[in-house]
Amino acid sequence: MNDGALLEVRGLAGGYGPVRVLHGIDFAVPAGRIAALVGGNGAGKTTTMAMLAGLLDPDSGTIRYEGSAVEGWGSAQRVAAGIVLVPEGRLVFPDMTVEENLRLGAINRKARRHTAQGMEQVYAQFPRLGERRRQSAGTLSGGEQQMLALGRGLMSRPRILLLDEPSLGLAPMMVDLIFEAIGELAAGGMTILLSEQNVGLSLELADRAYVMENGAIALSGSGRDLLGNAEVRRAYLGL
Amino acid sequence: MEFLLSGQLLVAALIIGSIYGLVALGLNLIYGTMRLLNIAHGDLVMIGAYTGYWLFTLAAISPVLAMLAAGALAGLTGAALYFGLFRRQLAGSQPIERIEANSLLIFFGISIVIQNLTALAFTASPRTYQALDTLVRIGEVSIAQSRLVALAVCLGLSAAIVLFLRFSALGLSIRALIQHRTASRIVGIDVDRVQAFTFVLGFALAGLAGTLIGVTEQISPFMGFPFTIVAFVVIVLGGLGNLAGGIAAGMVLGLIETYGVALTSANLRSVLIYGVFILVLVLRPEGLLQKRRLT
To answer: pLDDT at position B294, please?
Structure first.
């Protein structure tokens, strides 16, 4: 057992129909820390995230959260328990307003009574969302949609936030803004699992990191160790 | 020509339009949230019409009360079908297109079973009954009380549902499910619960509308199919899954049908409805009232 792990994954394997994406991966996310899954496109990061969020059933393996096995839990039950995904591609509700999107983040019973308070916090963190609260989400820029997706996730009152490719497709300035927000959340004690193709930025931020290749964990260590690793520098950082 | 401008005709069009809007709303809710093509939708209208007929004939119960019983009966039918048949299909990992195609065949079967069981129980001969038939005069227009009730109930209920969808947490979840199924699961919506509710609501609305329709139209085991067609035309017109648009489209179709028939002949009613259907599919397949979106 990994002491102090909020989320612990062992032997996770599976994929979509006959296509096996994950071939048995192990990793842990310590409470109050940032763990990162880094690697290129197709390494299996998003598949892992989908399994953690209950969107995709694994073929085998265990997912332990706060000590209980959650494989049988539906997605709604996981969100209520505090496992909250901010998905790749953001997946905001395009025809709904910013405010409605945020309300939907707090749709689970536990979070619902904190809706107003949660919204205030999100608007305080991202004033731009406050300015656009009556605008439909589909009219926002990519970076604003990412803020909204993150805000929507926070509305669910997460205990662990699963951030899947938060910087994908964003302008460099927006990437900085989003990573700054992630750093602030971590500083506030939030447990985060970050999946990223932006290996350099993620390793700088991560307390613990796992390099994924072809559905397996190729390397793991502290973010700093991996930043110094010659193989990582050559393959992912172009150094 | 003068009677085309009469209030009488306009009120008739609004009544038909409001009924179409409510019937189609039930179909649209079920299609939007689950992509199920309920080809048996009109048969729920028929069940509602018979409920009204028998409650009035046997127990002298007013259609205004009978419609609640009809809604409950249709809703129960919906619950049985959802939990018995569709829940497992929707929870599985089949692609949504497969579920959509399968549902058409399943509902086709259900429709035939419902129609023939009704024919077996009550014979196939058409029935009518006289209830709420006092004429009400409003200005120069005189309308049967039953039609006025239908107009008020259909408009009131449609408005209530639009408000419910807009402001309640459950309504918000329903709209979310219509827009994005995966995102709905991600935010933690209990998809199964929302689907069950929507399925029952859609059926109940059709049953309830059926009682109102049965007061003014002939009731037979096979009266439902034209309403299925109308409902499909309305939701294509309003944009699939666009609920408020569907209600407006019901009105539009009611106007087209009423004025079209007045200008030509009652025999052309189906031609008009199918004509609108085909025109919309060819010219604006995303629906008249749907804003175009690139996805």
So the answer is: 38
Q: Residue A92: helix, strand or coil by DSSP?
A: coil
> Rounded to an integer, what distance in angstroms lies between the CA atom of residue B151 and that of residue B10?
12
Residue B93: pLDDT over 80? no
CA distance B54 to B125: 15
Residue with tokens 């009109």: B42
Flag the least confident range among A229-238, B215-224, B243-252.
Answer: A229-238
Domain annotation for chain B: domains and CATH numbers: 2-283 (1.10.3470)
Mean per-residue pLDDT over chain B, rounded: 93
3-state helix, strand, coil in chain A (%, to 5): 40, 30, 30
User: Cβ atoms within 10 A of the Cβ of B106, count?
Assistant: 20
B21: tokens are: 């809007």
CA A221 and chain centroid, separation: 19
Q: For residue A209, what are the CA distances in angstroms to A30, A204, B211? A: 11, 10, 64
Q: Note the pLDDT tens digit of each residue in B8-39.
A: 899 999 999 999 999 999 999 999 999 999 99
Amino acid at A9: V
CB < 8 Å to A74, chain B: 190, 192
What's the pTM? 0.93
Average pLDDT over residues A150-178: 96
Q: Are strands A191-196 and A19-30 parallel, antiparallel or unpaired?
A: unpaired
C-alpha dihedral, B116 to B218 to B147 to B257, nearest 10°: 90
Q: Does residue A151 contact residue A131 with C-beta atoms inside 8 Å?
A: no
Q: For residue B290, what pLDDT is reported?
A: 66
Maximum pairwise Cα distance, chain B: 59
Return the structure tokens found at B178: 């219509």
Nearest-CA neighbor of A104 among B175, B105, B79, B112? B175
User: Is the pLDDT at A2 greater than 60, yes or no?
Assistant: no
For residue A156, give the nearest of B169, B179, B187 by CB distance. Answer: B187
Domains of chain A plus CATH, in order, are 1-82+158-239 (3.40.50.300), 92-157 (no CATH)
End-to-end CA distance of chain A: 36
Question: Each residue of B178-212: pLDDT tens digit?
Answer: 999 999 999 999 999 999 999 999 999 999 999 99
Q: How far is B181 from chain A (nearest CA, A)?
A: 10
Are the Cβ atoms of B180 and A105 closer than 8 angstroms? no
Bridge partners (DSSP) of residue B135 are: B144
CB proximity B180 to A under 8 Å: yes
CB contact under 8 A, B186 and A95: no
Average pLDDT, chain A: 95
Of A162, A203, A187, A194, nearest in space to A32 by CA: A187
